[in-house]
Prior knowledge:
Chain A is an alpha/beta fold and about 200 residues long. Chain A is about 25% helix and about 20% strand. Chain A has one domain (about 35-195): Rossmann fold (3-Layer(aba) Sandwich), CATH 3.40.50.10420.
Amino acid sequence: MSTSRDAILTRLRDNRPDPKAHPLPPVARLGDMDNGQARFENSLQILGGQVLERQEGDTLATAIARRFPDSKIICSAVPDFDGTIRIEELGTPQQAASVDVLVVRSPFGIAEMGSIYLSEAQLKDLNSAAHLTQHIVVILSAKNLTANMHTAYMDRPEFHTANYGVLMSGPSATADIQGVLIRGAQGVRTLSVWWED
Amino acid sequence: MKVKPVNHAKAAEEFIEDTAHMDFHDERLWDLRQKRDEQMHILPEWQELRARASAIKEHTLANLPEYLEQFEANAKKNGIHVHWAADGAEHNRIVGEILEKHGAKSLIKSKSMVTEECCMREYLEPRGVVVTETDLGERIQQLDNQMPSHIVVPAVHKLIPDVAKIFAEHYHTDPNDSSAQSLAWQQRLAARPVILSADAGMTGGNFVVAETGSFVVCTNEGNADLSATVPGLHIATIGIERLVPRMADMGVFIRMLSRSALGSPITQYTTHFRGPQKGSEMHVVLVDNGRSHRLGMEDFWTSLKCIRCGACMNTCPVYRRSGGLSYGAVYSGPIGAIIDPTFNERKYSTLPFASTMNGSCTNVCPVKINIHEQLYKWRRVLAEHHELPFVKREVMHMAGKLMGQPTLYRAAINSTEVALSTMPRFVLYNWLNPWGKHRELPHPVKQTFHSWYKQNRLKTKKKEGESA
């Protein structure tokens, strides 16, 4: 079984350029260090995401009801919101296909990109739910914004611990047919952020 | 029988005949190039990012055996099954065996150039596995029985009516559908049941992180995440050159990948796989297929730095006006022209000539591959290995003689200017000069730089010298 492995590694050792001539540069923390909510919202909008509107007296439930009036199955992955079904009640990855709106809390967002992060910890081990649901509402705290990709990869422990970790930057999209940009391709059709502070 | 070289020029000629398609192709890719420029100008640190990306990749390639071993050890610790494939045939066999063990008959997959390299679909389908591409562009190409024509936008050479026709045939939709929106919706409707009933999912991998034993997949449609999270079995096929040492290095690459590719700040999905999800099994197949050999090629090993953004294709005037399919290879455009000959020198001997040598590919490359210099070096290698067509060989032979002797060269250049202004068209635009096709030769200049320099600068210098 290991013959190809050994042959490949041996050939790489024989053929490689001199390692001493190619030192590893130190890790870089570059670019704009603004981790503000305004920068995040601007980036989110560029990638087709939106901020869920909060009117006077709104709760998350009323805001969702106004934004998605036709939705029947609202699935909650957070303890502080009920929905019509809890994510733990979905038995298989496939069952998540019935969900209209998934509500989930993200541990951090990236201001540079308007990205939100989700792992199996937030998705209660049902990672497919983030992609099979028609729409996703992400609860995020402005306190948990990191400035850019460098600060995210250097400071967030999740990249070293989660088995599955996705940065979603707006909804799914494609421009594969004659260059026409379409938001809502194979995955979520919309992505909305709900500020919890 | 010896394999015939790809006739890129002839295929390109056919592509050019269809003005509507060519014009769209040209404009669409140039638009991507311009969007890339806008993104580049937003970041003052762009050149520093490029320099770092290049240095990280060169370091990793020079230490690749150690980093591969580190990745393997960490991935296994995380519960990933790691396989090694020396070539495409071994890769296909490994994938086939994994599927067989699970009794998997349907495989959904996201875009992976390595599986194209290995001709995996052609291997699996006769063995009873239905393979479904889930990326929209790749699916269009699969239904149309064509290779992807671009590594990022596989069906960029097609227009809406082409897609409507293909979908009508396979999805029984309206053949006259003229809306990209509704066609994309048809794909979503057609793909969902296939995704939900699939036995196994497959993705590629844009980056592999040695430190954590993870791999990173970048897509826009969300189809890789669906392929990886819905079925209970996830196989990732990845080229061995995709390593980076540390998770912290990812910032440099993610900040440039989609900006270089499509001019968007980041792909809609950037997914980090570090181990199987609950109730699922994960396999990584590390594919060599000529890469370890390429690492030993002094002039060409840096092509392994490529992160497959496609920026060199979008900017290349030859690619934009000849279409990816004309290269007759898995990898097209400038990057294809320097890596395809490592797979088959004779078959792809024509590709390094599909360039004007303007160097734009090198300028836009986020990992600083000297693409146009490698194109030039490939021409020399191919000439030495006698892989040049007769006319090119003779013309280059004459050119070599001419350029080797300054006096002869200057005499010839002066007479070229005379020739351009006086010779009848049929002498300049004939079959010996394929550059004359579809293209006007430059207007002759009144005076060459050399003779101007002789007249003016040398005179001035002399004067300065005299006064001093």
